[in-house]
Amino acid sequence: MNIPLLDIYSDYLIASTAKTTATGLEKATSGSISHDKITSFLSEEDFTSQHLWRLTKPTVRRVETEEGIIIIDDTIEEKPYTDENELITWHYDHTLGKTVKGVNILNALYYSRGMLIPIGFQPIKKTETVIDKKTGKLKKKAAKTKNEYFRELLAIAILKNLIKCR
Length: 166
Fold this sequence. Notes:
four-stranded antiparallel beta sheet; alpha+beta; 2 domains
C-alpha cells in the first residue's frame, strides 16, 4: 500500500467541502498527482480492517490505558442513485425510522486520553436471499447478524490485538 498517497488522498477527503473526485485531487495538487494514479491506487486492493489496524496501531499503543474504551457503532452511507449489489443495498436506518439504500458499516473505535482512534470496521454485505415472513416478499440478508459482527470486532480488538481497555 502506498502510504504517502493514502495520506494525501485522506487529507483531500477530510479537507474538501465539496464533491470529491480523482480529477478534483489532481486539480488540488496542480497536476502533480494524476487522476489516473489515484484511480489506480484506489482499485489496486481492497482496504480491510487489518490494513486500518496496521496504520492506527502505533497511535493506539502511544495512548492506550487500562481505562480506555472500545466503542462499537454502525453507520449508513446513503447511496440512493447507485445500483444495488451485495454492499450497496437497503438497510434499516434507526435514526430515520425507515430503510435507505446505501453502505452499512460497523465501526470499532478506541477512546483514550482524549483521542478517538478507528481500530476496525466491517461492511455489511447482504449475500443471501430470504422470504420475509410478514410480507412474503424476497429480501436480502447478511450471512451473520450485526451482533455477531460486533462480537468479532471486539474479539479481534481485545484478544488478538491486545488493546487495553476497561
